[in-house]
Amino acid sequence: MQTNHEAPVIFDLTAGLFATSIHTKPYKSESPFRTTYESIPTMTRDYSSFLPTSTKSEATEIQKSKIDTLGWQPFFARQISIDELTQNPPVRIIEVHRSGLHAVGNDLDLTLPPDQDVTVGDWVLFDPDTQKHSRVLERKSLVKRKAPGSDRQVQLIAANIDTAFIVTSCNQDFNVARLERYIALALDSDITPVIVLTKTDLAPSHEEFVEQARAISDHATVVALDARGEEPAQKLARWCGAGKTVAFLGSSGVGKSTLTNALAGNTSIETQSIREDDAKGRHTTTRRQLHLVRGGCLVLDTPGMRELQLADATAGIESVFADLQELSTQCKFNDCQHQSEPGCAVLNALEKGEISRDRLERWRKLLAEDAYNSASLAERRSKDKAFGKTIRQVLKEKKKRRL
Ligand SMILES: Nc1nc2c(ncn2[C@@H]2O[C@H](COP(=O)(O)OP(=O)(O)OP(=O)(O)O)[C@@H](O)[C@H]2O)c(=O)[nH]1
Ligand SMILES: [Zn+2]
Q: Domains, the chain, ranges and CATH?
C-alpha cells in the first residue's frame, strides 16, 4: 500500500489552474441549472481562439485559450460560424450527473439540464437566452453500449475520445473475449485502442498475459505495468499529449482510477470520494468525469462496465477478426453461416488447423450479439410478433390434432 498524504494536485477544469482535485469534491449544485454565466463581468470578445489554427493570429497561437486546454480542435471549429460563436459559445461537458451536465468553456462554468443524447466529452453550444445547449457538435468519436438490463436502448458512454485504454489486470479478470469486445468497440468508434495490463507486480508470469493480449489484434498496442507509481506516466505518454482525450475502459477493480491518479502525478487522490455504495454494497465509481491532468491530457473516468454489450459495432468486429472476415469472402455462398455449408472457406481452414475453434466461436457470438442489439425496436417487435404468431399457430395445430 502506498501512502501519500499530500494534497492531490490536478488541474481544476473549472479554474484552469493547479488546484485541489475536482473529483475529491462531492458534487453539489446550488440550483438544478446553476450558471455563472451572468456573473461574469467581461465576456470574451476575441473569437479567434475558436477558429481553426490556420486562421488564428500569432498571439492566440502562443496563448492557449481555455477551450484549447479543454481539447478544442479544428475538427470542432469547422462546424460553427462566427455568428453562431458570438451567440452560442462552445462548452465541453466535463461531468454528467443525474441532475445536469457540468459544462466548461472560455469564462463559462455551467450546469446544463440533463439530456440523454449528450454525454461526457461532448462539445455543445451554449445558448444564454434559454440557459440550455443549442446543439451538440459532431463528435470525433462516441462510445456507446447497450443499456444494462433487458431494455435494449443504447446508452452514450463518452464522446470525443482520442485513445481508449482498455484496462485489465494480470489475473482472473483477464479475458480475451472481453478484450476483443472493447477493441471492436473502440475501432468502431474511431478511437485508438491500447490494451493496458495492470498488476504486473502481483503476477510473476505476466508475460503470458502480454503474449495473449498481443495476439488479439494488430490494431491494439499492449502495455503492461504496475498502475501505482511512475510507470503509467512514462509508458502511456505517447497517447497522453496536451489537449488529447483518453478514457479508461474495463471492469471494476482493474485499476482505472489508480491509472488516472498516476497520470495526474499524484497517488493520494481518494478513490473512495468518487465512489458510492451500490445496492449490493459494492464500491463503484458512479459518475462520468473529465479530468485535466498534468501535461495537459484530459482523462475520462468512466464507471466500471460489467455489462458491456455491442451494438452497431460491425466494422469494429470486422477489424478485430479481419482474417476470418477475409476467409468468409471466399465461402461458396454469400450468406454462409460457417456452420455446415458446403464450400465454406472458414470451416475448411478450421479443419486444416489454420484457425482456432475458440476464436471462431467468439467471432460468431459477437456478430450474433451485435446483430441482435443493433436491430431496430420495430424490427425486434416484428420479429417477436412473428414468433408469437408461429407459437400460436403451432399450439392451434396441436389442439386440432388432439380433437
Ligand atoms: N498491486 C497493484 N494494485 C493495483 C494495481 N492497480 C490497481 N491496484 C489496486 O486495485 C484496487 C482497485 O483499483 P481501482 O483503481 O480503484 O480500480 P477501478 O478500475 O478504478 O475500479 P472501479 O472504480 O470500481 O471501476 C485498488 O486497491 C488499487 O490500489 C497494480 O497495478 N498493482
Ligand atoms: Zn462459410
A: 31-136 (no CATH), 152-301 (3.40.50.300), 321-386 (1.10.40.50)
